[in-house]
Design brief:
Layout lengths: L6 H11 L12 E9 L2 E8 L3 E8 L3 E4 L12 H10 L3 E7 L5 E8 L2 E8 L6 E5 L4 E4 L3 E3 L2 E3 L19 H10 L4 H8 L4 H11 L12 H19 L6 E7 L2 E8 L10 E4 L3 H27 L3 H32 L1 H16 L4 H10 L5 H4 L1 E5 L4 E6 L2 E6 L4 H42 L14 E4 L5 E4 L3 H11 L5 E5 L7 E4 L7 H13 L2 H4 L4 E7 L4 E2 L14 E2 L4 E7 L2 E7 L3 E6 L1 H7 L1 E11 L1 H16 L2 H7 L2 H5 L7 E3 L2
Antiparallel strand pairs: 1-2, 2-3, 3-4, 5-6, 6-7, 7-8, 8-9, 10-11, 12-13, 12-14, 15-16, 16-17, 18-19, 19-21, 20-21, 20-22, 22-25, 23-24, 26-27, 26-28, 28-29
Function: Probably part of the ribosome quality control system (RQC). May mediate the addition of alanine residues (Ala tailing) to incompletely synthesized nascent chains from stalled ribosomes, leading to their degradation.
Subunit structure: Associates with stalled 50S ribosomal subunits.
Family: Belongs to the NEMF family.
Length: about 675
């Protein structure tokens, strides 16, 4: 089964993602966030014009494609994606190219006039590397040093040793290559032209040349046919006349996917195939689906393995008791059999002692006993003799007993009684241990029942910025242009009050009045909210102006000749100003009927929240501040599991103002 993409796969994919005239192109796509769900893999969340949100998955050394099968993002982001975000978030993709028909994809990005290149190495031991416009390495996923090649920050990025491109194949070049080769035709083509095994076999098949022919024995006609075959195989990629499909064959009685190819291959003519409108979709169905299934299987396996420690201990103790009881019963039975066959065993011991007294060797004794089985009934019961340890094994009605020839019959029986007695004591000890385990389980259950429990509900306003005022009014604000638009069009009512700042870059904020009179305290808190979550905070200022209006004063109809961008509105009529409103935000935990992190004006959060942390404009970005607040909650509550459920760094970050902040001492 195919494990990674080939150079031809990369060429086909780039012909889709890097061609502005092809549906699914990434040219001009805007980069949102970057995630690293597992080592060696990143996921870039994109906004594609005319399509919306989508995700580009890149797994170093294996694959790259847009994907709907996404691995879950880690709760705490890794360093590499965080640093990538710093350089390319908000950037626009300007190019997607393949380097020299190798398994290398280069994604050009421009942000604020600064150009960077994201290099995706899909060959074995590949990497993901961010370069500046001078091709100097800004950041590698895995800093490594090879012979003659260093992939580390500050170094000039150097490509691995180049191979021949099948797109430039010529008869003279192939003839020289074959003359110097010690391998057969198919291996020589596969390695020298970077084709891989499947396409190399396809070239040989279409050329009518035996793939096992030694390369140096290939005729000029063979070379000519092979060159023509290479061009024929790759013409659909060059001309972008792809026919992407997943190839399926029966494996152990079931039909399974074995390969994904951008074009039809003669060697798969008899195989069942599933066709796709784009090679990108075929790659996702082949690689992406498999990766997501591996995650599900891994989770299921971990759940199966994650047996409770007390249950595991209890099971082992119960198994030990069964073994103690079984062995104790066996030893008691042997002791009783020894007494039942007292005379026979005594006779065997006497015969052995007499033979030893006469100076017979053990080999001679075994020979004598073998001959005496017809005349001496006791000899027939002997199974074996261990001369080194001085034991004889006798068969007592189907039960084997090991008898010490230096001890009497009663002494031998007592040995087995003592063993049985010892096991009975172990069994009693195990029974007491089981009771201790059950008591520990009960204590643990009581402890678990006393732990804080998280209670979650879904609300329509969760998608926005929000808080409940000191007077109990819901105040909701947009997060961006899209949510501003949605809030006004879908949730604003005539009886509501609308807030906005004097400067641009603020959320449309609405007090949901429900027809009630709104006290001044709520108006002031809404004013602080709209100022704090605006560009005023982002600029590091500590106060700003805002105003409130009625919903009917908000319009999407611009003045004649003017244009309103998404998320913007025209305000008409008289405005009610709040001047020089101080910024200030707090984050707290609501631990009542619902358990959740809340954020907003200090006075409102202090009224309904606990463990309140106040923030001011500062020097730390949202993610850093979120982690600091998270650690405060873990230290305060002494229950990391509960805090992670209720106030993860991601959920805290959603409550923070845009820009940089600091914790008020």
């Amino acid at each position: 089964m195919k494990q990674e993409m080939t150079s031809a796969d990369v060429a086909a994919l780039v012909s889709e993602l890097g061609n502005v005239d092809v549906e699914g192109s990434l040219i001009d796509a805007k980069i949102a966030k970057v995630y690293q769900p597992v080592p060696g893999e990143i996921r870039i969340n994109l906004f594609i014009f005319g399509k919306g949100r989508d995700n580009l998955v890149i797994q170093a050394g294996k694959r790259a494609h847009m994907s709907k099968y996404l691995r879950p993002s880690p709760k705490l982001p890794h360093a590499f994606p965080m640093l990538l975000r710093k350089h390319i978030t908000g950037g626009r993709i300007t190019s997607v190219n393949q380097y020299d028909f190798d398994r290398i994809i280069e994604i050009g990005v421009i942000r604020g006039g600064i150009e960077t290149i994201l290099v995706c190495e899909l060959f074995s031991r590949g990497n993901i590397v961010l370069l500046d416009s001078d091709r100097k390495i800004i950041l590698p996923m895995n800093p490594v040093t090879f012979r003659g090649r260093r992939v580390r920050s500050g170094e000039i990025y150097e490509y691995p040793e180049a191979q021949l491109s099948p797109l430039d194949v010529e008869e003279a070049g192939m003839a020289d290559l074959f003359a110097a080769s010690t391998a057969d035709v198919v291996r020589t083509i596969a390695t020298s032209y970077n084709l891989g095994g499947v396409l190399a076999e396809e070239v040989c098949l279409r050329a009518g040349v035996d793939k096992k022919t030694a390369a140096k024995d290939a005729t000029l006609d063979d070379i000519k046919a092979l060159c023509e075959s290479v061009k024929a195989v790759f013409s659909p990629i060059v001309e972008h006349k792809l026919k992407p499909c997943i190839v399926k064959k029966e494996i152990k009685g079931e039909l399974g996917a074995i390969d994904v190819v951008p074009l039809e291959l003669d060697q798969y003519s008899e195989a069942e195939k599933e066709y796709f409108p784009s090679f990108n979709q075929a790659l996702d169905e082949f690689f992406g689906k498999k990766a997501s299934e591996e995650v599900i299987e891994e989770v299921v396996a971990k759940k199966k393995e994650k047996v409770d420690v007390f249950e595991r201990r209890l099971r082992k103790q119960q198994e030990a008791i069964k073994k103690f009881e079984k062995d104790s019963e066996k030893y008691t039975t042997i002791a009783e059999k020894i007494y039942e066959h007292y005379q026979n065993i005594e006779q065997v011991l006497a015969v052995l002692e007499n033979a030893r007294d006469k100076g017979y060797s053990w080999a001679e004794i075994r020979s004598i006993l073998k001959k005496a089985k017809d005349d001496l009934p006791a000899a027939r019961s002997i199974v074996s003799i261990d001369s080194a340890e001085g034991f004889v094994v006798v068969d007592l009605d189907g039960v084997n007993a090991s008898i010490n020839i230096r001890k009497t019959v009663p002494q031998n029986a007592q040995i087995y009684y003592d063993k049985a007695k010892k096991l009975s004591k172990k069994r009693d000890g195990a029974l007491r241990a089981i009771e201790d385990t059950k008591v520990a389980m009960q204590k643990r259950e009581k402890k678990v029942s006393k732990r804080r429990k998280a209670f979650f509900k879904k609300h329509w306003y969760d998608r926005f910025r929000w808080f409940f005022s000191s007077d109990g009014f819901l105040v909701v604000g947009g997060r961006d242009a899209d949510t501003n638009e949605e809030l006004v069009k879908k949730y604003m009512e005539k009886r509501d009050i609308v807030f906005h700042t004097q400067v641009p870059g603020a959320p449309i904020t609405i007090i949901k009045t429900e027809g009630k009179d709104v006290p001044e305290t709520t108006l002031e808190e809404a004013a602080r909210f709209v100022v704090s979550y605006s560009s005023i905070w982002k600029a590091g200022q500590f106060s700003g102006d805002c105003y409130w209006i009625k919903p009917e004063q908000v319009s999407k109809t611009p003045e004649s000749g003017e244009y309103l961008k998404k998320g913007s509105f025209v305000i008409r009529g008289e405005r009610n100003y709040y001047k020089d409103v101080p910024v200030g935000v707090a984050v707290g935990l609501e631990l009542g009927a619902e358990t959740r992190v809340i954020g907003g004006p200090v006075s409102a959060i202090a009224r309904s929240g606990k463990y309140v942390v106040e923030l001011l404009p500062g020097k730390f970005n949202q993610n850093d501040i979120a982690k600091k607040v998270y650690r405060i909650y873990v230290d305060e509550l002494k229950d990391p599991s509960f805090v992670k459920q209720v106030a993860s760094p991601d959920s805290i970050a959603r409550m923070l103002p845009p820009g940089e902040s600091d914790i008020k001492k």
